[in-house]
Amino acid sequence: MILLHGMNPATPAFDQSYFRSALSRFPTGVTVVVAQAADGSPIGMTISSFSSLSLEPPLVLWTLKLESASIAHMRQAEGYVIHVLSAAQQDLAYRFAKGSQQERFEGIPLKRSRSGLWMLDMPDCSAWFECRNHHQHDAGDHAIFIGAVHACAWTNAQPLIHHSRRFHHSPPVAEIIVER
Ligand SMILES: Cc1cc2nc3c(=O)[nH]c(=O)nc-3n(C[C@H](O)[C@H](O)[C@H](O)COP(=O)(O)O)c2cc1C
Fold first, then answer.
1. Which superfamily, per CATH, for 27-81+103-165?
2. Locate the Flavin reductase like domain: which residues (predicted)?
């Protein structure tokens, strides 16, 4: 059964948790963004606010809360790699949303991208985007990071989906015909 929750006398005109619940009804994919801290070590976090932005030039965006422990590192990072998680990588979504950076990367295989950025050495991601940290814009309590994509790759792996604060798996992905 579908329950429609609207405003009622018990609901304040604008209630933050109600707003968050409404936002959670928008299904998204889940990514892990990996960059390099000033000391050279990798930093990473789970991000679902990823979106395509522009085809020409190729741009994507994602947002990070200003109170994030990594915000200062992200602001100064030269670039980052955005990994779109597959259904088989749900554990990574939990891992990169809590704990210290050291704990997040414990036992995680890493490699350098062609342009020298840290990235997950995991061929079973759904896709990845290697980005230059092109532009940042603070809006409310988040910073919008705009990435200029200079390399990307994708697979037919079934993607991980986040909806109503839960993870879901999509039906198997059909073979995609590549348009070039
Ligand atoms: C599925 C999921 C999606 C998330 N998406 C975002 C997001 O888009 N932006 C954000 O700031 N935090 C997001 N988070 C929370 C961050 O992953 C979490 O706050 C993390 O601790 C941030 O890292 P830091 O505080 O070490 O910088 C998400 C968490 C989960 C589990």
1. Electron Transport, Fmn-binding Protein; Chain A (2.30.110.10)
2. 23-169
